[in-house]
Amino acid sequence: QVQLVESGGGLVQAGGSLRLSCAASGRTFNTYTVGWFRQAPGKEREFVAAVTWSGSITYYADSMKGRFTISRDNAKNTVYLQMNSLKPEDTAVYFCATDRLRYRSQITGDKSEYVNWGQGTQVTVSS
Question: Where is 38: in which H helix or E strand?
Fold first, then answer.
């Protein structure tokens, strides 16, 4: 069983940056792809980015490409989301989760394929 805790959210002005962290407990964390998702008020939870268990492959939603960078440090059981050039429309609660399958070689952005959701961290971008 993997438990995830997100941190690093906060209030930032448009154009600013934040780095989110997703810290995991559990010895098998480094065998799972990890994804970041976000949910704005009144909207569906949407895919942001994901990184494979080895860290060698990353995948981004189109609107995040070039602004967000996902990475992981398996020695620290942590996945990061560096967010630059933030926009007011990036305001949401950000969640991390693990793939439901270990060692999957292909990344999916389908939230139904993810489990072990954290409690989320609020990101607010002011204009």
Answer: strand 32-39
